[in-house]
Amino acid sequence: MALLRGNLHAHTTFSDGVRSPAALVAEYESRAYDFLAITDHDDHDNWVEPGYAQALARLKPQLLLFRGVELNFDGFAQHVGKVTGDQETLWVLNHPARYKLSVAQTVERIAFMRNAGWSLDAIEVTDTGLYRPIYDTEAIPLVKIATDDAHRPPHFGRAWVEVEAPRDRDKIIRAIRAGDVRLGFSES
Length: 188
Ligand SMILES: [Zn+2]
Hints:
There is one protein chain. The protein is of the alpha/beta class. The protein has one domain: Metal-dependent hydrolases (TIM Barrel, Alpha-Beta Barrel). The protein contains four helices and eleven strands. The strands form two sheets. A nine-stranded mixed beta sheet has the order 9-6-5-4-3-2-1-10-11, with helices on both faces. Zinc ion (ZN) binds at residues 9, 11, 70, 149. The site of zinc ion (ZN) has 4 residues, from loops.
């Protein structure tokens, strides 16, 4: 098995990112990433369906590409990353730092959302790639991940995950869900 580096949260011109899907893939291939999830906002004016899915399907990436979407919880502002493998799906509580949540509020929010029927596997301990260590605590009952939530420079490549797994979308998701993941940061 190889140690694979990837980013699980990034945006394109299908929402509020500045790179087309092909240019975003090229951005991460130039950084030697092994995998990338494109996770545009489904409630953005630039979002089109099925054009988004078709655009991602037309890509010919060298890296392993995950389809994804960034959803908002219905009820209050809380983005959730949905990263789609072949059979598996990874659900991520995105950037709690953006909402200025305390650890206790984060734990409460996770319980509330799960009660409302939302799956949650992991939580970002980053905000557009900057490390927010207060969320990197066992008090929060989710796997910790780092993403760069890239929209535009200088976000690309600021934070990532490393997973010891075969080059297979479902195996990567399962490894992350099991907590078998390392975090990387280029700055803090
Ligand atoms: Zn985002």
